[in-house]
TrEMBL record:
Record GO terms (molecular function): 3'-5'-RNA exonuclease activity; nucleic acid binding
Protein name (database record): Inhibitor of the KinA pathway to sporulation, predicted exonuclease
Source domain of life: Bacteria
Pfam families for this protein: RNase_T
GO annotation (BP), single: DNA metabolic process
Organism per entry: Pseudomonas antarctica
Swiss-Prot/TrEMBL keywords: Exonuclease, Hydrolase, Nuclease
Domain Exonuclease intervals: 22-209
Alphabetical list of SMART domains matching this protein: EXOIII
């Protein structure tokens, strides 16, 4: 990966984000399935169009102070495939008991909506467009109001790849390439959201140093 940022693109990133007061760094985990190791071929229990969010992680960054001012995490109970696959539990470390005790998506969406009332001038971002697409699918399936209505969205992975002229990569490798230590477990919504917030903070610090 190119270690030095494109300063013009970094400034563009900072200018766009700084029009807001807060940034919500969001990461989801969802039901999923995949063949493990030498497992015999079989039909996947959870198809790509059947994935449901099972964890929402959210870190709120104050764009004036560049501090993470709030963390939000909720498990979500899946409906289509309520039993997590071995692959899913291995990937995310989310336990069956965690989702069994959780609320369904529409109820968690109301909690997120209540949280947003505290941050009227905000945008949200995720690592890649998957999270935005998954939330849209969850909203459609649950027949509920959009979870982040009318809020500007930013694909942070795309911005990162433009700034560093690099191909698409995972969140953890991208974080560590900046010299940041990874905090927590990879592929956990709350931990990924926290690390994404740390990345955004560092990029904004770099941009403001050269502005």
């Amino acid at each position: 990966m190119k270690t030095l940022p494109n300063t013009r693109k970094l400034r563009t990133f900072e200018t766009f984000i700084s029009a807001f007061e807060f940034m919500l760094c969001v990461d989801l985990e969802a039901t999923c399935d995949e063949l493990i190791g030498a497992e015999s071929p079989r039909k996947l229990i959870v198809g790509p169009d059947e994935m449901e969010t099972i964890e929402i992680g959210l870190a709120v960054v104050d764009l004036r102070t560049l501090e993470t001012v709030e963390m939000f995490q909720r498990y979500v109970r899946p409906v289509l495939h309520p039993t997590l696959t071995p692959f899913c539990t291995s990937l995310t470390s989310i336990k069956q008991a965690d989702v069994d005790a959780a609320q369904e998506f529409s109820e968690v969406a109301m909690e997120v909506a209540a949280l947003l009332q505290k941050y009227p001038s905000a945008l949200w971002g995720s690592w890649g467009h998957y999270d935005a697409d998954q939330l849209a699918a969850d909203v459609l399936r649950a027949n509920c109001r959009p979870i982040l209505p009318g809020i500007a969205y930013l694909d942070i992975e795309r911005c990162y790849c433009e700034i560093f002229a690099c191909p698409s990569l995972g969140l953890r490798p991208a974080v560590e390439a900046l010299g940041l230590a990874w905090s927590g477990r990879y592929h956990r919504g709350i931990d990924d959201a926290r690390n994404l917030a740390n990345m955004v903070t560092l990029l904004l610090e770099k941009a403001r140093c050269i502005s």
